[in-house]
Every structure is written in C-alpha cells, then in structure tokens.
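step=encode ok
step=design start
structure_in=
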C-alpha cells in the first residue's frame, strides 16, 4: 500500500509518515530567511534616515556600507503622481520598498502623497561589509 505525503509517494510503513530532513530543508531555509529579513526590517525601520532633497533638486545619491546581516532604513516624502526611480549599486546589494516590493536592485513606481520607507541590505549573507550607492530621483 502507498500513501501520498508532501507530494511524494511512499510505501506504507511505520517510518512513512515521519518527515525526513530533506522534506523540509528548502522550506526551513526560506522561512529562516524571511524571518531574518522581517526582523531586520522591523528593527531598521525604527532607525530610518530621512532623505531630503536640496532646494530645486529632485535627485540625490546616498553612499554607505552594509555590514553582514544589517538592514539600513531610509525614508523620503513624495507627492501624488510623481515617478520615483530608486537604484542601488554595489556588489550583492538589494532594495526593498515597503508597500511596493522586495529585494531588487532598482525600482520605478508612481507615488502617492506619502512618506516611503526603503531598506538597503546585502542580498546573500556575506562575511564582509559591502559598500553601496543609492540613487533616488522624483520626477
């Protein structure tokens, strides 16, 4: 007799219903990464650096260094109907824009009248700090 468990066919036996580490390794890794990112994001959001444009300017560049497992938080205010173009340059770096999307090197979106928060972090865990440059423009 066979049973279908977790997408696999297994023969009926006393061990057939006991999940093996291989059954969950990918799911556990994804869940661990999600929890680590959310925890880092929640912590970083409390310490966001506000970005302000100089009078008469609509773009700015921010440089920094991201330590391993560090999420750096920034915020900027936008008017309704503007086009935000947000990019990060640097080895292994991503940007997540809260309410827009996660983990890309660049984002372009039409804004609402609100303050946006974005997180800069290393995409894959590294043992070294990584320099980055964020460019933000509102048109």
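sequence_out=
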């Amino acid at each position: 007799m066979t049973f279908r468990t977790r997408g696999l066919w297994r023969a009926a036996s006393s061990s057939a219903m006991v999940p093996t580490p291989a059954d969950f390794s990918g799911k556990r890794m994804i869940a661990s990464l999600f929890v680590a990112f959310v925890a880092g994001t929640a912590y970083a959001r409390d310490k966001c650096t506000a970005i302000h444009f100089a009078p008469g300017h609509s773009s700015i560049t921010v440089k920094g260094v991201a330590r391993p497992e560090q999420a750096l938080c920034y915020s900027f205010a936008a008017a309704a109907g503007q086009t935000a173009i947000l990019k990060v340059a640097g080895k292994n770096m991503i940007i997540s824009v809260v309410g827009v999307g996660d983990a890309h090197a660049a984002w372009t979106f039409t804004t609402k009248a609100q303050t946006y928060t974005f997180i800069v972090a290393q995409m894959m865990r590294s043992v070294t700090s990584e320099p980055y440059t964020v460019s933000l423009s509102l048109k």
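step=design ok
step=annotate ok -> The mean pLDDT is 80.
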